[in-house]
From TrEMBL:
Top EC category: transferase
Coiled-coil stretches noted in the UniProt entry, renumbered to this chain: none
Organism (species): Parvibaculum lavamentivorans (strain DS-1 / DSM 13023 / NCIMB 13966)
A Gene Ontology cellular-component term: cytoplasm
Sequence ranges assigned to domain Quinolinate phosphoribosyl transferase C-terminal in this UniProt record: 117-282
Pathway: Cofactor biosynthesis; NAD(+) biosynthesis; nicotinate D-ribonucleotide from quinolinate: step 1/1
Protein name, UniProt field: Probable nicotinate-nucleotide pyrophosphorylase [carboxylating]
Catalytic reaction annotation: nicotinate beta-D-ribonucleotide + CO2 + diphosphate = quinolinate + 5-phospho-alpha-D-ribose 1-diphosphate + 2 H(+)
Function field: Involved in the catabolism of quinolinic acid (QA).
GO BP terms: NAD+ biosynthetic process; quinolinate catabolic process
The protein's Enzyme Commission number: 2.4.2.19
Keywords: Glycosyltransferase, Pyridine nucleotide biosynthesis, Transferase
GO function terms (MF aspect): nicotinate-nucleotide diphosphorylase (carboxylating) activity
Length: 289
């Protein structure tokens, strides 16, 4: 399945980028740039990749520059979802030099972080090519940045799990313990949920899986199971529910897990621990005022 990468609306991007700029500008603004760069100076700079990866976050970077100075022109060379190699130009910015320098760090913070997530997602997606499985993210995201991090997962070729607690019912181990067991938890969830709400339950053993299937659920989260256990779990599910594997899965371990026949491989680390993609802003030239 190839998912179309739909850009985030500017209405969702602007508040987060504005807050980041306000945090960076503080009480007196960019005192370094104001002191060293003439107000009339104009420049052209390039955002270049320092290492191979997958691009995500250009709209956030562009928003940062434009909020600082609406006259800045940002030309995208490598769109979100594109692969880059070291030295590739991702975007070019031209206009008042002060605005470029003031917006630089916030723009690169969003771009580097989101591109790092896209790159990590791409690694797993490539590792499981040829299987039916898709990599998806979790709610293990940076507070306040979830929509951006989940967008970056899509840019990397992955899929999104729940965006919040209100998306779907996901019954985990502590829910089961506090509700009196799998059957009780699922039955209560069914009674309390509307007909459009999906119900998923997390299981650690094949016995728990059988209990969940006996009651009936839309999806099962097969947590920390070996590839052999996953293969048997998929056999028992028999297409009656979506099979999702989780538990510290990496690009190295993903192929064997995908070969078990699961539908989804969920990874928390691709959002909470993905390394930032190294991107930098390189001066190209001063332009006429």
């Amino acid at each position: 399945m190839t998912l179309q990468l739909t850009p985030l609306p500017a209405l969702m991007i602007e508040p987060a980028v504005r807050a980041a700029l306000a945090e960076d500008l503080g009480r007196a603004g960019d005192i370094t740039t104001q002191a060293t760069v003439p107000a009339e100076a104009k420049a052209r700079v390039l955002i270049n990749a320092r290492q191979p990866g997958r691009v995500a976050g250009l709209d956030c970077a562009r928003m940062a520059f434009r909020l600082v100075d609406p006259s800045l022109k940002v030309a995208v060379v490598k769109a979100d979802g594109s692969d880059v190699e070291p030295g590739d130009t991702i975007a070019a910015i031209e206009g008042p030099a002060r605005g470029i320098l003031t917006g630089e760090r916030v723009a690169l913070n969003f771009l580097g972080h989101m591109s790092g997530i896209a790159t990590s997602t791409r690694e797993i997606a490539r590792a499981i090519e040829g299987t039916k499985a898709h990599v998806c993210c979790t709610r293990k995201t940076t507070p306040g940045l979830r929509i951006f991090e989940k967008y970056a997962v899509r840019a990397g070729g992955g899929m999104n799990h729940r965006f919040g607690l209100d998306d779907a019912v996901l019954i985990k181990d502590n829910h089961i313990a506090m509700s009196g067991g799998i059957e009780a938890a699922i039955s209560r969830a069914k009674a309390a949920s509307g007909h459009m709400v999906k119900i998923e339950v997390e299981v650690d053993t094949l016995d728990q899986l059988d209990q969940a299937l006996a009651v009936g659920v839309d999806a099962v989260l097969l947590d920390n199971m070996t590839p052999e256990m996953l293969t048997e779990a998929v056999r028992r599910i028999g297409g009656r529910a979506v099979a999702e594997a989780s538990g510290r899965i990496t690009a190295a371990t993903a192929p064997a897990i995908a070969a078990s026949g699961v539908d989804l491989i969920s990874c928390g680390w691709i959002t909470h621990s993905a390394p930032c993609l190294d991107v930098g802003l390189d001066f190209e030239s001063l332009t006429a005022s």
